[in-house]
Each structure stands twice: as structure tokens, then as C-alpha cells.
Design brief:
2 domains; RNA binding; TPR-like_helical_dom_sf
Length: 131
């Protein structure tokens, strides 16, 4: 059923109906929540993210919830404002943030340039100074 989302990508109402059906059928799937969050961000409906997170907290286990939160932070960076990304980063615990920033830096070393690597280092420094 997830492949139906790609078919109806341009038809927002149809895509919304598919997500409602998926939430009923597959309650504990992190993939569905991730796809839905991407759908929300693509359509500039960022205010619905909070509702989605609260719904996900009731159905997903802790490990999947952390994965979803990291995914939402990435979506905020890609589609949303940087201010919201910073607010979201403050909610992550130190160990999760360290893992995330390490992988982010490795990615930028492999595929990015020096300025993006420096940006990741600045994020890490600001996170450490806040804690």
C-alpha cells in the first residue's frame, strides 16, 4: 500500500485518504509515519507535525520514536525553517544527538564540502554549550 503514495503524489486528497487507511491497518509502522511527515512538510502543513508526533507516541515504541524524531528533524532542515530544527534538536538527548551529528559529519565529509562540515561542527559546539 505504500507504493500507492507514489502513484497519487500529485493528488493530495487521494494521498491523504491512503494515509488514513494505512494508519488504521498498520498502526505500529514507523515507515508510514515517516512518509506522512514528509507528505505534511511537502505540502507546507507544518502545524500538523505536533499532532502526528503525539499520535505516534501512543503507537510506536521508544526506539522507533527516536528514529521518527530524527527523520522529522531532517525534514525540518530540508523543507522547514532552521529555527524549528534548532528547537527540535534541543529535545533530543545527548547520546542520540551525538550519534546523529557523527553520522551527519561523516556524510558531509564523504559527500559535502568544507563549509557544510564546518556547519555540522558549529551545530555540535552549540549543542554542547547548551547542555
Amino acid at each position: 500500500m505504500l507504493h500507492m503514495i507514489h502513484i497519487y503524489k500529485e493528488k493530495k486528497e487521494e494521498e491523504e485518504k491512503i494515509f488514513r487507511t494505512l494508519f488504521k491497518k498498520v498502526k505500529g509502522s514507523c515507515k508510514v509515519y515517516k512518509k506522512y511527515c514528509k507528505f505534511i512538510m511537502r505540502n507546507n502543513r507544518e502545524e500538523e507535525i505536533k499532532n502526528t508526533i503525539s499520535k505516534a507516541k501512543t503507537t510506536l515504541d521508544k526506539k522507533k520514536m527516536i528514529s521518527l524524531e530524527i527523520h522529522i528533524a531532517r525534514l525540518e532542515y530540508k523543507y522547514g525553517s532552521l529555527i524549528k530544527e534548532d528547537q527540535f534538536k534541543q529535545k533530543l538527548n545527548t547520546k542520540t544527538m551525538k550519534t546523529f551529528l557523527t553520522k551527519y559529519l561523516e556524510f558531509e565529509i564523504k559527500y559535502g564540502d568544507e563549509s557544510k562540515q564546518e556547519h555540522v561542527r558549529d551545530i555540535a559546539k552549540s549543542f554542547v554549550s547548551r547542555k
